Sequence to fold (162 residues):
Amino acid sequence: MPQPDGYRLSDYRSPTPDGVVGAETVDTPAVQALLSPGRLIPIFVQRLERSTLPGGPWLQSKPYRQIPGSVWLPNVGVGAPDPATLAWFESQLDRLTGGDRSRDLLFYCLSDCWLSWNAAKRAVLLGYARVHWYPTGIDGWMEAGLPTEEAHPLPPPAAPTP
Fold:
């Protein structure tokens, strides 16, 4: 699968390219090795719908599992996020890294999921130097029999104004 010039805008659950330009593609043993020094920030990017109520929460139809210690930033991997979601993504990365763009960031979702590919590409374009993409995601992690924890999304960004 060739890498697109832009972001994947639809059909997020389909085969992905072998890599992301500017990021390192990693497998399960590499993720384990990166986690051991404690410098890696694992970021789960599964998509969620939002309530239509003003300032409404994420709507989670089923529980999700994540790599222990991960931060769940929903919707930051959609192809064309609204400006509020983009600003939220940038501010969350800045908060998580303490402004250090050389921190190791790991983006993952499910296997065959473009959301993590898009989010990794977006982080590279924001100037993060040590971006890692885990294409098999939580599915590969669980298939390896590794521990997980229940995922809880961070509160959503301000709802876009109509």
About this structure: Helices lie at 28-35, 83-97, 114-125, 137-143. DSSP finds four helices and nine strands in the chain.
